[in-house]
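Objective 1.3, modelling of assemblies. Example input:
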Amino acid sequence: MIELKDLSKTYRSPEGEVVALEGVNLRVEEGQIYGIVGYSGAGKSTLVRCLNLLETPDAGCITVEGFGTVRISQGRCFFRPESTIGDAGENTGMETRLTEKHLKALRRDVGMIFQHFNLLDRSTVFENVAYPLKYTGRSKAQIRARVLELLKLVDLSEKVNAYPSELSGGQKQRVAIARALANSPRILLSDEATSALDPEATESILKLLQELNRKLHLTVILITHEMAVVKAVCDRVAVMEQGRIVEEGSVYEVFSHPRQPITDRFVGSTSGLGRINALMKQNLDFITPDDTVIKCVFSEESVGEALVSDVSRRFGVNMNIFLGSVEILQGKPLGGLVLKVEGPPEKRLAAIEYLRQHNVRVEVIEHG
Amino acid sequence: MAEWLAKTMPNVVDYSDKFLESSRATLQMFLIAGAFTLVLGAFFGILLTVTRPGGICENRILYRVVDLITNIFRSIPFVILLIFLIPLTRALVGTAIGVKGAIVPLVFGAVPFFTRQVEVALAGVSPGKVEAATAMGSGKLGIIFRVYLHEAVPDLIRVITVTAISLIGLTTMAGAVGAGGIGSFAINYGQNLHHQDIVNVCVLVLLVFVSLIQTLGSGLSRRTTDRALFRRMVRAEEPSAPPESPASNPGQKS
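Predicted structure (tokens):
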């Protein structure tokens, strides 16, 4: 479990202040794959860097299960080991200044991978993965065994003596993952780890992360600007905008019932239904004053019902399907339709109301 | 051979012991001052890199002080530095002439130059690598040696080459004000006694020396880019495993 409380961070420069984080609260349970999405500049990179204190927040609390709590006040860090936290989470123990030693311990508990891999170019794959193992009291033979084990885990055993320049992007990221896992962390932070990869490599890296999550019970916190990545692997997702988390929930919840406009845009960017917005901009002249264009999202409870023909019969309206899609998210179906409803205005309104009563999220795109 | 030498460069042959002695003095100055420069320049270069704003041991005051001193010494022309430092040189080594007296101004002249060069070389190491090492729990010394210095090797070799060549230039200049060496040999026995062959041979010797350093530096730098000089192989399988080693073709891309 990892928990953030009231985290805030402001960058100050002669040109002015930039608020990167503003009262961020977040809780990630053990074994979850947790996505954090947002446009660039939303503060997600700062947030993930605060988790392992690569960046020091101005204020807030970071609790990592098995490690302890770091409280930051006015940019100064204090540490309280876990055993002294009371049952109710209240602070009962002695608080000390956070030292370099604590930081190292925390960072061994939290692995991290990056968009640009950040491998040492002059070191072989073996040496890269061995980097965090050296000077930790292990013997050469132990290091060798551990590195080979890690490379097997990321399916890269045959590249043990290669240099990064001899690897593809996906392979480099695999090396980075092996390196991040060397000291058996329980949490892995992924900062846009697939953003520099082609679609195929992205898929294989995401699969690997999922596999590691299952095999090692690894908690993964995944920063991305691509909703498709969240959709593919995450259990829960938080949406960030201007340094705040504006929406949070299970991936299915957020995709089926986005509450914020920005979330809607993110969801729309990965669903086929998002294309309707582009289509509507073309001023389609087949929409007459007697038509209403609506977007319907069917979630688990309603996706199986024959609602379209039901509504059509019941209210005497014509339903013309523009676009449709069904996706499986976290093993649950999520369907969507863009419909043109034709008929008298009161019938159209009644039809929409009826759909809403049947757990369909209806969004009116255009009234004719 | 001896006949040909006596014919083409009579004065060099006449003053051959002087010539050899001068060459030895130049080499001595180069090696001793070079060793000091290497150590001190690397030290200050690293210091500037880690203390700079955003560096791993950010310290604005220390950074500004070292930065300022480096700039000051960089802006004094070497010939002026030579005479400016005479009192200090006397105080430090007891004399201001000869090889011994030349070392101090040479070090003062070359260290600021090399410091800047090292700083530039280390700035070429991507901040992402440093961040990754920090995230892995690597300490500051670990980051300096295992990331900065390790990753910057090709650039460091390049700047060492440049500095070495400029140091040779400095030693000949020091020769003009009493340090001895090839520089003073060329002036005193070549220029002042109108022996053009002596000047020519001095140029030739320096040319060969500089070319050697440049060739060695360029070659080493190229061979250490994106790789170590010698690839350390690790067998992927236990020694008991069948001999077909997948590591035998590491250059293959998939």
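Chain B is about 75% helix and 0% strand.
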